[in-house]
Amino acid sequence: MQSHHRFAVEACARPFFPRSRGTPRQAAPFARVRAAAAALGVAFAALAAGITSAHAQSACDSPLAASGSVVRFLTQATFGPSKEDICALARMVEREGSEAEAFEAWIDQQLRMPATPLADHFDPDSGNYQHSLARRLAWFEAAVGAPDQLRQRLAFALSELFVVSEKDGTLSRRDGQVGLQRYYNMLLAHAFGDYRALIERVTFDPVMGHYLTVVRSQAAAGADGAQPDENYAREILQLMSIGLDLLRPNGQPRLDRAGNRIPTFDQNTILAFARAFTGLNYDLGEVDDNPCRGWAGRGTDFTRPMVLCERFHDQGEKRLLAESSSAAIVPAGQGAERDIRDALDNIAGHPNVAPFIARRLIERFVTSNPSPAYIRRVADAFGNSGGELGATVKAVLLDDEARSERIADRDYAGKMREPLLLVTGLWRAFDGALEGLDPRIARIEPFGQSPQASPSVFNFFQPEYQPAIDTSAVRLPAHIEDSGLYAPELQVMTELATIQTHNDLRVLIHGNAAQVPLALDDELAMLRRTPEELVSHLDQLLLAGTMSEALRAAVSTVIESPASASEWPLRQRLYDILYLIVTSPEFAVQR
After folding, report:
1. Looking at residues 492-510, what average pLDDT do you find?
2. What is d(CA 241, CA 238) in angstroms, rounded to the nearest whole number?
3. Is the dihedral of CA 26, 32, 36, 37 positive or negative?
4. The whole model's pTM is what?
């Protein structure tokens, strides 16, 4: 008999192949959801601190009341510190008695928060480009305004690990854009859950099935017939789970007796996994319940998980990863469901998974160059929790290598901010308002990065990218590659992209009333009355109190420009100050 298994994306439970339909359509206007969620988030923080809302308001006049380490923690854990979040966390520090306990309590609160899904702004009568704008707007609204910031930030990191992209021709169209957003909401729903369960949902997702061409991959049909598609099999191993080389628990490569790296898999392994993944098809159940419907190429559906067609599944024995703690041999004749289950168990049981995922999450949240000991500690957290991503990211953020200011002061500490984080950091710091679909949101595209729009499955940048730039000024060898250091985000920040980014940041700041309005009344008042306080305020809010003397002098030069009695020149001066800071190397590097 042919099996017709439906795989739900909304349930976080571990069971395989539950028989339910996909995620319900999110139709509520996001502005109302955002306002309600923000109100709940602020109220929850106030209650957690044991204070009244009136006291909370008075305590939040300025981020200067918080330490730089509070701002730095929120820079790592969110899409950028907001004034409200800084003050709320500062109150938690006071209540808990230490920053370490407060940071852990903040993470625990975030882990308990429900997911804020991307809002449905799609107009069924609009074209492909408008659908792309609607999806991007929903992403920015959630990144800037959703209260579950840690989940949002982790889902973004996962979207750069389990990559799908609108740069694919089909996914750039209206149905594809809807599918991309549903895929992202799936990552949001399962961001804190079990890694093994997540790779199962990714495997059965029709957007991934299309993007990496595993959908309708079938068993070999003779010497001259169709062969199983190897694309997804290769990339789930190389990019999403174990990498190319065997690793020690601390992420360092294992070497053979000749000192060479040991490959994790070969072509035979790829083919074995490709055979295990045969028989997946779009769920066209609204037409009929035949899971093999449309196999010849007619009909797609990006709204429901894929189903299994036994007729096209390779039923033979498959030999998988021998290093895994799970069985390496998949017996013949057990069916598509069991084959895929065993294949994913085999991947998740490989010893590389813990250090591989640990390093990827450290790179996305804290530093491009973690020590082996840091990777080992996070990998242990992954393993001890049974692969729970929430516990893993908690270990990433609370580790001494993430929290130590002594380590943060080292020349190679931290990471470059991704272009999207430059924008969200600016908007969150000054309560940027993203209300309604403005086509000019497309201005984000020239930054070199847009959500779910990477040029390939390799994301916008590769983890081990080493730009050939002179680093002698920071007491490092002549080039980054000579020092063994990595700077992945610089792969997308080319000279041209940097110029475009700076130009667009200027437009977003100076033209913010027509783009995304920034709430700058407090800063204007400081500039008018106490400009020295403004410098300290912006230093703390945007740079966690680490502004260099050179940048402070440059900002002071702008402040000391000839005064004007008119409000508009004063506002323009504030825009110049903001532009100077957010285009500085100090803002570009997340310490």
Report:
1. 87
2. 7
3. positive
4. 0.88
